[in-house]
Design brief:
There is one protein chain. By secondary structure, this protein is of the alpha+beta class. The chain has 2 domains: about 50-240, no CATH class; about 240-470, no CATH class. About 55% of the residues lie in helices and about 15% in strands. It contains 14 helices and 8 strands. The protein has helices spanning about 1-30, 40-45, 55-60, 65, 70-85, 90-110, 230-235, 240-255, 260-265, 295-305, 315-325, 330-340, 350-410, 415-470, and strands spanning about 115-125, 130-140, 150-160, 165-170, 175-195, 200-205, 210-220, 225. A hairpin with a 6-residue loop joins strand 2 (about 130-140) and strand 3 (about 150-160). Helix 12 packs parallel to helix 14 (about 415-470) and helix 13 runs antiparallel to helix 14 (about 415-470). The longest helix is centred in the last third of the chain and has 58 residues, at about 350-410. The radius of gyration is 31 Å and the shape is flat.
């Protein structure tokens, strides 16, 4: 019996000791360990609210100007924006819409093949609502039987300087990580706000013609700051070499760790999943790369034997068609998988230093081809944008101006002849838009194929440099 009492006493002592130990640790933690306060740097990230200068000036000016209906509309919208910009409902709406766009980019476009995951890190709605300079009704369509509004088009002259900011984290297919932050400093232009019941009840806002845009862009790749030239590309039309943007980190630190191909390819729009057949191209000398069924090896074969520095215009286009021809009919996801798996075997029969030199020579030729194709893509995009702007301008003039033009044309012919001529010109414009859109799609596919080759070569270069440095 004494043994049982001793064991019971020991058990109770252990339990009491454990409880006392936990209580002592809890007291020390709560008494001496304090959670540090959040710094001002973390709490002051919200953009300060400011009224647009034009709205402030209209308030301080004469009474007649302050009674302008546009001023009243701007003041109401600015007030509602200030009250709602931090509300959960508004922020969830923006997150939901942006997430849908990112999901569509990943699943429905070839650009999404370069990414594994896109995550919204930060969303800042800015410090002010867009300023409406002018407002007018462009078109109203009523229902034939009920008389309700079927379609309403409102033309707006908008100006925005609110510093809307969006930050995105990107996980890429080669295990790399990137970061992109875009701040909208200024946007202005003529826009159309449309409310319609066709095919379902919805609203939309779009610019007519090219708006003036000023963006602040910050990009990082593998934690390294990238020198972004995208601002100049979008604001003043400066055509920076896309291949330079692809390889600037490579040349700066002698490593492929800074390469950010998806950020460049995504700016070129969407394309199909495979490339169309292209004309045959015959190399001029034997390649050091073995001819296999690997389309990347065949493309590098043609790059080796091409003398792109002496070509221009149509000759360069023919050579580029030959370079991307091995990708014809191959899905982009298979090419990406092949680019990751076969890059380590490129030029492995040579010494590491020689291997680096050979890859750099092919990269130099690839940069010339990519520069030429992106210039062609930019020209086609500009031509298509001009045609769309001209078409939108014709729609904006409305039926009144169209009837006036027809009446003026009847001086030289009958109204039916004038209508036929106008219809013929419209069909010609539509055919030209379709032709340019088709060429633009082909150019996008060629740029994406060349970008995959660039990614393949830079991955091989990184591997060769790591071996040469050992």
């Amino acid at each position: 019996m004494e043994i049982v009492d001793i064991l019971l006493f020991c058990f109770i002592s252990c339990v009491i000791g454990a409880v006392l130990m936990l209580l002592g640790q809890y007291y020390v933690f709560m008494r001496f360990v304090e959670t540090p306060e959040e710094t001002d740097e973390k709490t002051s990230t919200t953009e300060k609210f400011e009224l647009p200068d034009s709205v402030l000036s209209s308030i301080k000016n004469s009474e007649s100007e302050s009674k302008n209906p546009i001023v009243a509309i701007n003041l109401v919208l600015q007030f509602l924006f200030y009250e709602l910009r931090h509300s959960n409902r508004v922020r969830k709406w923006f997150y939901r819409k942006l997430s849908l766009e990112l999901d569509e980019l990943l699943t429905k476009s070839t650009t999404g093949r370069f990414f594994d995951k896109l995550t919204i890190r930060e969303l800042e709605l800015g410090g002010q609502f867009p300023d409406i300079k002018s407002l007018r009704v462009n078109n109203v369509e009523l229902h034939d039987d009920d008389g309700h509004i079927e379609n309403l088009d409102v033309m707006l002259d908008l100006s925005y300087r609110g510093n809307f900011r969006l930050a995105i984290d990107a996980d890429m297919v080669l295990g790399k990580k990137g970061f992109l932050s875009v701040r909208v400093r200024h946007v202005s232009g003529l826009a159309r706000l449309q409310f319609t019941r066709k095919p379902y009840t919805h609203w939309s806002l779009s610019f007519i013609g090219e708006p003036q845009v000023d963006l602040g862009i910050e990009s990082q790749f593998q934690g390294r700051q990238m020198q972004s030239n995208i601002n100049r590309l979008k604001s003043d039309g400066h055509r920076q070499s896309f291949s330079d943007l692809l390889t600037q980190g490579l040349k700066r630190v002698n490593s492929a760790n800074n390469l950010a191909i998806p950020a460049i390819v995504s700016s070129l729009g969407q394309g199909s999943r495979s490339l169309p057949p292209s004309p045959q191209y015959t190399p001029r000398k034997q390649s050091l790369v073995p001819q296999t069924t690997n389309p990347l090896a065949l493309a590098i074969l043609k790059l080796e034997t091409a003398n792109l520095a002496e070509l221009s215009g149509q000759q360069m286009s023919s050579v580029i068609d030959g370079i991307v021809e091995p990708f014809s009919g191959t899905p982009l996801d298979e090419i990406m998988t092949l680019a990751k798996s076969s890059s380590l075997q490129l030029y492995t029969e040579h010494e590491p230093i020689k291997r680096v030199e050979m890859i750099n020579e092919v990269l130099a030729k690839l940069r010339l081809a990519l520069d030429s194709e992106t210039t062609t893509h930019a020209d086609l995009s500009m031509a298509l944008a001009e045609l769309k702007a001209a078409k939108a301008a014709r729609v904006e003039t409305g039926r009144v101006s169209s009837d006036t033009n027809l009446l003026l044309q009847t001086a030289k012919g009958s109204p039916s002849d004038a209508r036929k001529a106008a219809s013929a010109r419209e069909k010609e414009a539509e055919a030209e838009m379709a032709r340019i859109a088709f060429l633009l799609g082909q150019s996008e596919e060629r740029v994406q194929a060349l970008s995959v080759i660039m990614l393949h070569l830079c991955s091989a270069l990184q591997h060769a440099q790591s071996i040469a440095g050992q």
